Amino acid sequence: MKPQIAVVGSINMDMVFKTPRMPTPGETLMGHSFHQVHGGKGANQAVAAARMGADVDFVANVGDDLNGKSCLQALAQDGIQLQHVRVVPESATGVAGILLDDAGENCIVLTNGANALMSLADIDNASNTIAKAKLLLCQLETPLTTVLHAIDCAQRAKVKVVLNPAPAQSLSDAVLAQVDYLVVNETEAALLSGLPVTDVASAESAAALLRERGARVVLLTLGASGMWVAAPDGAYFLPAFKVEVVDTTAAGDTFVGSFAVAIAEGRDLRAACMFAQSAAALAVTQLGAQTSIPYREAVERQLQKQ
Ligand code: RIB
Q1: Which residue from 47, 187, 249 has its CB within 8 A of the most atoms of ligand 1, so it is best to mutate?
Q2: Is ligand 1 within 6 A of the CB of residue 38?
Q3: What is the DSSP letter of 296?
Q4: I need a labelling partner for 188 at 20 to 30 A (CA). Which of 164, 169, 230, 282 fits?
Q5: Which residues have a Cβ under 8 Å from the Cβ of 39 and sit 6 or more positions away?
Q6: Which ligand 1 atom minimizes the distance to the CA of 166?
Q7: Which whole number is the average pLDDT over 146-161?
Q8: Active-site residue numbers?
């Protein structure tokens, strides 16, 4: 039986410019190439969960435009249920402008478009779907009120909640207390905890503080070095898989979607983290967001090699 996962989140068309380096203010820089790729944190996490073998229901908004049509077509090809995606006539689909330099680092500018118009009614319409899922996955590219409403809905139905608070914004202790698995990178952890996160020791302190503030399990990803796991029964470091970095876009989303599937299938926390790390490591070896998300077979193969 495939685990059922509900994802509430964003859909974007990513406009990716490959450049030798990041431009400085006022500079015109010749790029290497341009690629248009399906993205959005919500959509990427939904795709990752589907490619890892889950039945995914996606709650999202797109504009009534070509970008929206193309994004929905791609999601349908991944077998994602789209009954709760609303096409918003007065808005454009979200667009992300992504600069990707030769070192594989990126900078993203986002115009939220239809994502910003997700409403409480959109969540209410999907409440039965959320209530019957094994897990709810949320990020913060849709209005915070809608995310909190979806989390309430999941909690009432005793559905576990995975929150990836990206892009980072402050959250109250009451919200953190509703989160079963909080997945943060260094920037998000620093903003939420108020502590700088620069290495494993500072990750340990920030994760402990976020647990004190209410999150049950904190997964703090540390890029190429690995991740810090803080759970009720202990805390530990897991090193990352060593791979050649092409593009880090959507590596975090791949981690979150894959982690959700592993947990929904009943793997223990350590095994679920390693499965997600394997998926994220494969994602950074390819260009783009959804173009880089691997399929389960490759993820398992890499895990076995390790
Ligand atoms: O996390 C990567 C995603 O962030 C990109 O696909 C882009 O759309 C932005 O939302």
Answers
A1: 249
A2: no
A3: H
A4: 282
A5: 12, 13, 14, 96, 98, 249, 250, 288, 289, 290
A6: 1
A7: 98
A8: 253
> Could you write out the three-class secondary structure of 168-215?
CCCCCHHHHCCCCEEEECHHHHHHHHCCCCCCHHHHHHHHHHHHHCCC
Atom 7 of ligand 1, residue of closest alpha carbon: 40
- Residue 192 phi, psi (nearest 5): -75, -30
Which residue type does 213 have? R
User: What tens digit of pLDDT does each residue of 251-287 get?
Assistant: 999 999 999 999 999 999 999 999 999 999 999 999 9
Domain ranges of the chain: 4-24+31-305
> Would you state the structure tokens that stand for residue 114, as one six-digit string?
């239809």
What is the mean pLDDT of the segment spanning 5-14?
98
Among 99, 109, 141, the mutation site with the greatest number of ligand 1 atoms within 8 A of its Cβ is 141
Asked if residue 141 has its Cβ within 6 Å of ligand 1, the reply is yes
Higher pLDDT, 205 or 305: 205
Nearest protein CA to atom 9 of ligand 1, as residue: 40
pTM over 0.90: yes
Looking at CATH, the fold of the domain delimited by 4-24+31-305 is given as UDP-N-acetylmuramoyl-L-alanine:D-glutamate ligase (3.40.1190)
Q: Label residue 144 left, alpha or beta by phi (over 0 means left) and psi (-120 to 50 means alpha).
A: alpha
